[in-house]
Write a structure and sequence with these properties.
This protein has six helices and two strands. By secondary structure, the protein is mainly α. It is flat, with a radius of gyration of 17 Å.
């Protein structure tokens, strides 16, 4: 499998995991939503969306203006719309990406500083960064009395690839 095919597959898992994360946040009992941990869960999810938005602008060369890395958390309905929009845009970007493009450099600006990086490294950073923060969200949801679900890759990939996974 080519590298771009791997990244497309891994991003499909991320989209599934993000949907589960948002559903977990939505499942926090109403009485617990005044707790600061609920706001923290929303802030972490909004940060994940901001990272995807900001780096897509740099990687695609769209010239879009960066938003804040830690935006004010929107309400959950708006956050779900934001994820749907950025996931559609990332899917289109990954669908157009070639293996050669993974080896290219890109530049971005943050807080008045310019940085250069490697496309594939940044795509991997975004995926691993999402695992980290989704784990924090799961813990907060659990502490708030919400139901949590497993977002592990292995639980997602087995039904996606029955030809490669089976009982022995």
């Amino acid at each position: 499998m080519a590298s771009t095919e791997n990244h497309r597959l891994w991003y499909a898992h991320e989209c599934d995991a993000n949907a589960k994360m948002l559903a977990m946040i939505r499942g926090v009992p109403e009485g617990a939503r005044a707790d600061g941990r609920y706001g923290r869960a929303l802030a972490l999810a909004a940060h994940l969306a901001a990272c995807r938005e900001n780096f897509l602008a740099s990687l695609s060369g769209s010239g879009e203006r960066f938003g804040p890395w830690w935006p004010e958390p929107p309400d959950l309905d708006e956050l779900e719309r934001r994820f749907a929009k950025i996931q559609d845009r990332w899917t289109a970007y990954l669908d157009s990406l070639t293996d050669a493009a993974l080896d290219a450099s890109f530049e971005f600006e943050d807080n008045g500083y310019r940085f250069a990086g490697h496309v594939e490294d940044q795509i991997m950073q975004l995926a691993f960064h999402a695992f980290y923060h989704r784990g924090q969200v799961v813990q907060l949801v659990d502490q708030l009395g919400g139901e949590t679900v497993d977002t592990d890759y292995i639980d997602w990939i087995i039904p996606q690839r029955p030809d490669r996974w089976h009982a022995v």
